[in-house]
Amino acid sequence: MPNIEEQNLTEFLLEVKAKMANISTSQNNEINDINQYVLNNSGKFIRSKIIYLYGLEIGVKKPKLVELASAAELIHLSTLIHDDIIDEADLRRDMPTVVKKWGIKKAILYGDFLYTKTFQGLNSLENTDIADVLINCAEALIEGEFNQLKIKDSSTFSMAEYFDVIEKKTAVLFSGILKCLGIEAKLPADYINDLEQLGLSFGRAFQINDDLSDFEDSKTTGKAKFKDLAEGKLTLPMIFLLGSLQEAEQIEILKIIESGKFLRIKQVLESSGSFEKARHERQVAINHCIEYTERFIKLDKLDEIKTFIKNILVA
User: Fold this and answer.
1) Over 90: is that where the pLDDT of 20 sits?
2) Is the pTM above the cut of 0.90?
3) Which DSSP state fits 24?
4) How many domains does the chain have?
5) How far is CA 290 from CA 50, 52, 68, 295, in A?
6) CATH code where residue 194 lies
């Protein structure tokens, strides 16, 4: 039987989902059908859990947490719709994507609809500083997608470019929601900066973990095995591998990927130490998360949040 804290979190997430449904309701029945499908398959609500766990600890009231979480989740969902269109993805969380189920035209329109509804929700927030932060996050997410396409098209293997992409595509929203908590709690500027850095570290670890999960069984990770490889995305283990090779060897590895021999690539990554290097980078980011968390969280809650961080960030 769940304890009181688990029950409180479950109730909070139900409120967030209800708020998201309310914000994104349309007068068009087909849009509502897509909306219901998307909201029923909207993932683990990690951003909402972060908002809840950290927000309560720094003194933000629950209604504000629900508002912030629903806005953050809708921004995240909007980017996923467009990501699936760009990647021509058939599945997400073992379910057909919107683009697969309804076609590209309706998927694009629905993605635009969700963005519009999200920004309407942001405009309703009483604190315009928080709305501005989340709007800036949405802009950065789009820039990150453009940068990822640029890297994919040019076959660039730069570590700096990789971290720039994951900061904009993944970490910026984690950083933004934690900054919003600090603004709502009226914390000093240096505390707000620490919360931003916590979010960036969390996002970095989260994306590296996602990169590593590309090579694991989908039943464990919830992500289709070799999805990133099949889509031609350069994950951190691959960047470590390609960065250690001469140009001719890089070309050979890329040919193996194009041929679909992904198990062979996994063996090369393991033997080259590329997985180990990526796991080290993930652990460095996790350590930074814990270090920043210790500045905000009381001792009696610290172990609980450390466990949450490790469970989310280690596939």
Assistant:
1) yes
2) yes
3) T
4) 1
5) 13, 17, 23, 9
6) 1.10.600.10
